[in-house]
Design a protein that fits this description.
The chain is of the alpha/beta class and about 550 residues long. The chain is about 25% helix and about 15% strand. The strands form five sheets. It has an eight-stranded parallel beta barrel. The protein is globular and about 80 Å long. The structure holds alpha-D-glucopyranose (GLC). The site of alpha-D-glucopyranose has 9 residues, from loops.
Length: about 550
């Protein structure tokens, strides 16, 4: 694998900077604090850090409402702090990607402020206006719990403006060549500073066309290909990751012929990992994998269990959504829009066996995994905070006051620490897990290390192991360049036996990659494996 394909076998880690580490003592996480913690990522084995938006913003959508694309939000520090952080990350061999919010700005952005004040403003045409607010009725509303329409009336402008998210986030008008150029300028600025690429926010919605749902339009793909051409020409080796919460066949288009995005999140696979566990049935996962098209050799899926948003249930059927809500979000406060605003560990009752199992599935699936900060120690949530803030609470480093996050007075922290009976920072923290054998943190660290030694995980084809009808066990075979890895997952709390057809590897020894269980060589007969409750195995079939 060449270095320019680094992202194909990388482990990513998503950081909400405000939550990670407060280096200035002002009760908000910042870039200086993050820089102090860089060795942590190396220790865990992470290759690339994804930073949520860092830019000046009124924070109506936690920074996804950008007021200036060229500066750092004062809560996070200065541009010099950013440069320092990036240099220090690079010095450790870590890569850093930032959020690129293409679709919309904040209504506080000077472009919008100018645009709304006069029809003659050079920025008027940067946004999408209407006299009636009736256009594009087929576009769905995404923030269903707060927005009644994708149009909002602006009394200053005397017109309606178009927005796919909060009404404080007017959509940019990509039919305007000046807007298309502005965003290339933004990219150039951060790439020149040295970022290794972007997680491109909300890309399906760039263009609007009457008679469509205004998602995944050909015009959008044309522009994104232009973005990629620009990157290829000037910044080879940097990466573009698409946030397109869509069905696999629609996301497939974002890879183009290997000439659009390098990576795209696989949204639909995510809820089906939870569903398979809850139903003790691998079928939902295998179904979505079978609906997932092949992707070009220079591209990669990005898989995740949780992120900073609600656990989205947009890419499931209404029946599946009800099942997920009833199972994982019994209380109304746990639900938001079409999703569940909870963290990984509480979703799984804090049961380490289940959490490990889900990570093992995540790491076994095709794609590069992204971990969400705090989930590597099984952090809890606070459903009483508004919006998605309940999954954005301070990182729990140790059991000292403020959990080692900040030296500010506790009551000043930007959000309360998790301090409930089950998930309090006094028990759930990095320090204790680092020194405890078999802790979640140590298990994940080991999984990452093993995964990175075996390129079949990142690059290999994925098949299900044949000849077994026990639906409770998920068995995946990843193979690449003469290397074969069999992963097995018992989705239930009961021991399970499986019989696998490994006859095409007859004579090959089998090595356990995660523990030291011994296994017989593969043979022509069905190959029996016993799995304990929620047990998972990673087996290397050593081809001769
Ligand atoms: C993306 C982000 C989400 C944000 C939205 C609007 O979905 O992940 O946090 O609210 O875009 O920018």
């Amino acid at each position: 694998m060449t270095d320019s394909l680094w992202y194909k076998n990388a482990v990513f880690y998503e950081v909400y900077v405000r939550a990670f580490r407060d280096g200035s003592g002002d009760a908000h996480g910042d870039l200086r604090g993050l820089a102090e913690k860089l060795d942590y990522f190396c220790e865990l084995g992470v290759d690339c850090i994804w930073l949520l938006p860092l830019y000046p913003s009124p924070l109506c959508d936690d920074g996804y409402d950008i007021a200036d694309y060229y500066q750092i939000h004062p809560d996070y520090g200065t541009l010099d702090d950013f440069k320092h952080f990036l240099n220090e990350a690079h010095a450790r061999g870590l890569r850093v990607i930032t959020d690129l919010v293409l679709n919309h700005t904040s209504d506080q952005h000077p472009w919008f402020q100018s645009a709304r004040r006069s029809r003659h403003s050079p920025y008027r045409d940067y946004y999408v206006w209407s006299d009636t607010g009736q256009e594009y009725p087929d576009a769905r509303i995404i923030f269903l719990d707060t927005e009644g329409s994708n149009w909002s009336w602006d009394p200053v402008a005397g017109q309606y403006f178009w927005h796919r998210f909060y009404s404080s986030q007017p959509d940019l008008n990509y039919d305007n060549p000046a807007v298309r150029q502005e965003m290339l300028n933004v990219m150039k600025y951060w790439l020149d500073l040295g970022v290794d690429g972007f997680r491109a926010d909300a890309v399906p919605y760039l263009f609007e066309r009457e008679g469509t749902n205004c998602e995944n339009l050909p015009e959008t793909h044309d522009y994104l290909k232009e973005v990629r051409r620009y990157l290829n020409e000037h910044y080879p080796g940097r990466v573009l990751l698409a946030e397109a919460n869509q069905w696999p066949q629609d996301v497939r288009l974002y890879f183009g012929d290997g000439d659009e995005f390098h990576m795209a999140f696989h949204f639909p696979v995510m809820p089906r990992i939870y569903m398979a566990l809850a139903k003790t049935d691998r079928t939902p996962l295998l179904d979505i994998l079978s609906q997932t098209p092949e992707i070009p050799a220079n591209t990669q899926w990005c898989t995740f269990l949780r992120n900073h948003d609600e656990l989205t249930l947009e890419m499931v059927t209404p029946e599946e959504r009800d099942f997920m809500w009833n199972t994982f979000a019994p209380e109304p406060r746990m639900r938001l829009n079409l999703g569940i605003r909870r963290r990984l560990a509480p979703l799984l009752d804090g049961d380490q066996r289940k959490i490990e199992l889900l990570y093992s599935i995540l790491f076994s699936l095709p794609g590069s995994p992204i971990l969400y900060y705090g989930d590597e120690i099984g952090m809890g949530e606070n459903i009483w905070l508004e919006d998605r803030n309940g999954v954005r609470t301070p990182m729990q480093w140790d059991d000292s006051p403020n959990a080692g996050f900040s030296t500010a007075p506790m009551e000043a922290l930007y959000a309360p620490l998790i301090d409930d009976e089950r998930f309090s920072y006094r028990q759930v923290n990095v320090a204790v897990q680092r020194r405890t054998r078999g802790s979640l943190w140590n298990v994940i660290r080991k999984m990452i290390a093993v995964r990175k030694e075996q390129p079949a995980f990142g690059c290999g084809a994925c098949q299900t192991a044949a000849a077994d009808n026990n639906l409770t066990v998920l068995a995946l075979i990843r193979s690449w360049s003469g290397e074969t890895i069999l992963t097995l997952h018992n989705l239930s709390d009961q021991p399970q036996s499986v019989q696998l057809d490994l006859s095409c590897w007859a004579g090959a020894p089998v090595a356990d990659l995660l523990s030291d269980r011994r296994f017989p060589v593969c043979g022509d007969e069905p190959y029996p494996v016993e799995l304990g409750a929620y047990e998972y195995l990673w087996l290397l079939i050593v081809n001769s």
